[in-house]
Amino acid sequence: MSNSAEGSLWKGALIPSVVVAILCTIGSAMIRHTPGLWGALMASATVIIFFSIHLIINQLSKNLDPIAVMSLAMFSYFAKILFMGAFLVIVTKTTTPENVNRPAFAVTALAITAAWLGGEIRAFLKLRLGLPLPSSSSSSTTGGGDGQK
Q1: Is the residue at 141 inside a domain?
Q2: Could you give the residue ranges of the DSSP H alpha helices within 61-145?
Q3: S-S: 64 plus which of 68, 82, 97, 116, CB 3.0-4.6 Å?
Q4: Quick one: the chain helix, strand, coil %, rounded to 5?
Q5: Which domain, by its residues, includes 34?
Q6: Does residue 133 form part of some domain?
Q7: Structure pTM?
Q8: Is 95 exposed, middle or buried, given 0-12, 13-18 or 19+ CB atoms closer than 10 A?
Q9: What is the CA radius of gyration of the chain?
């Protein structure tokens, strides 16, 4: 993914996300101690993996039929939501608030999500994507450009 548009988007989104993740992890550890640390670390991993999957699927499906791409995107979105829900249920059932701080998880997840989306938008605006335009030589070869009707 390093030389593609998705690679540029991933790099542009990952850098601010990691910075925010580190700041939130340090802040949560200072405020909520070990449970805050675990909550922030779990949120960091969850959000970064969740958004990275989207860009990986875009990279893998760039040469597919548009209907196949839409189907793959919908399937991946549905699968990510199911896995995210299952992950959150498992975390709430197997850990206690004394081990994993829920507010630290939530605040960190929201902050990293905002950083990821902002970084991805910024990286997208920096991309210079070339759009295929119709060739101008076709109008001159048909004889329509010489002023005759």
Answers
A1: no
A2: 66-94, 102-126, 137-141
A3: 68
A4: 75, 0, 25
A5: 5-127
A6: no
A7: 0.75
A8: middle
A9: 22
